[in-house]
Amino acid sequence: IAGHLCDLTSGEVVASSGLMNPQIRFGEDLMSRVSYSMMNAGGAQEMTTAVRDGMNRLISELTDEVGSVPEDILDTVIVCNPVMHHLLLGIDPFELGQAPFALATSDALTILARDLDLKLHTEASVYLPPCIAGHVGADAAAVTLSEAPEKSEDLVLVVDVGTNAEIQLGDRIGGVLACSSPTGPAFEGAQISAGQRAAPGAIERVEIDPATKTPRYKVIGCDLWSDEDGFEAAIATTGVTGICGSGIIEMVAEMRMAGLLDASGLIGSPGQTGSDLCFLDGRTHSYRVRPAGDDGREITVTNRDIREIQMAKAALYSGARLLMDKRGVDRVERIVLAGAFGAHISPKHAMVLGMIPDCRLEKVSSAGNAAGTGARIALLNREARAEIEATVRDIQKIETAIEPRFQEHFVNASAIPNAVEPFPELDKVVTLPNVSFNTGDAGGGESGGRRRRRRG
């Protein structure tokens, strides 16, 4: 949860802070939290209390930073995904766990802060922008306010990357379409063998030499690359603790570019890749990023890790491709990566992975925390509230769960970057090795040319 404290007179942001979503203990992603609500009596109320308590802690941190108190706050705008939106309001989100993913309310709301147990000024109000659709929330509406796809002269794809990606496609002429896609927590380091959340010691940048197949990397909290003098001394306090979301995206893409990974997502054997950093790990191969040190911690990427990333990126791409289908286009002119996580994603690596459609790399940009920007606009400009309410009414909502082509796109997008979609702009800057490791060579010998046919 991110918060910004603003001076209502000048519009200046006087303090910013954040805290881990207290709902994380109930589930790594939105659907697991809905499941917690459905499976546990009083679960929804438990999560409501957790999120309100967390917001009060965050508000206290912000006011402490400027020598003020929460009771001095007169107005608040809160933007969040539909599940948190409902839980904040004290509404059980169980309907969001099953088709047709109905919202109890999608309207913009203005509520007294005290009615949400927020310890602000006794007459302080809270404004929540409208939700766009069942899993496209008020946070996506705030992104719309910030990025204004409905005013764009070129066709822009706005992707808010998270456990539930919120995707918008639009321009001034054709209006805006929106959908959500369940990417799951893999992009945040969850369900990855060496994965972790972004913190000091986590690998966040990766390069793999295509000739030697040797990796080098940067970790959060250190400006040196791992092959530079002084790196080990610089990380002596934190060590190398794992791989965060941006790191795993770059890792998988670099493995693909270095010929360690084929389009289907298989890691090659030492004989196939020419690297002893690939080793047999059960029935498949893994790639050793960092050998075990004094702490005994070894950093590797397994084939199961690759599969988790494939599933996440295929879901994201499929949502974007569905919107393109509805618009009747095969290309977009511009891509905006929104969200705090989106700010740390390398456009080239995201495209090699096939997370996003093909586009000129210079036309792929980051908007940072665009939802936070939209929230500040709504806080400081009352007319902007009416504007976003009108804009949301005109957005065409696409429900990915009931779209027949979603599964087709998902299967195609499971390949790296894609089994059928061309990437001509990416091909101008990256040549991906044409390798296939599905040859029955589990022991590490040389690659056979053709795939072997299974015996029936």
- Overall CATH architecture of the largest domain: 2-Layer Sandwich
Termini Cα gap: 53 Å
**Largest beta sheet: strand ordering:** 16-15-6-7-8-17
**Tell me, what is the CATH class of the largest domain?**
Alpha Beta
Domain count: 3
Cα Rg: 23 Å
CATH fold title of the largest domain: Nucleotidyltransferase, domain 5
Q: Point out poorly predicted stretches.
A: 442-456
Which percent bin holds the helix content?
25-40%
Global mean pLDDT: 92
Structural class: alpha/beta
Say how many strands there are: 17
Q: Please describe the biggest sheet, giving its number of strands, its sense, and whether it closes into a barrel.
A: 6 strands, mixed
Please state roughly what percent of the residues sit in beta strands, choosing from under 5%, 5-15%, 15-25%, 25-35%, 35-45% or over 45%. 15-25%
Number of helices: 14
Shape: globular
Word description of this protein:
The protein has 14 helices and 17 strands. The protein is an alpha/beta fold and 456 residues long. It folds into 3 domains: 2-128, Domain of unknown function (DUF4445) (Nucleotidyltransferase, domain 5), CATH 3.30.420; 148-185 and 308-370 and 400-427, Nucleotidyltransferase, domain 5 (2-Layer Sandwich); 189-301, no CATH class. A 6-stranded mixed sheet has the order 16-15-6-7-8-17, sandwiched between helices. A 3-stranded mixed sheet has the order 3-5-4. It has a 3-stranded mixed sheet with strand order 10-9-11. Strand 13 and strand 14 form a beta hairpin. The longest helix is centred in the last third of the chain and has 25 residues, at 303-327. It starts with a strand and ends in a 29-residue tail after the last helix.
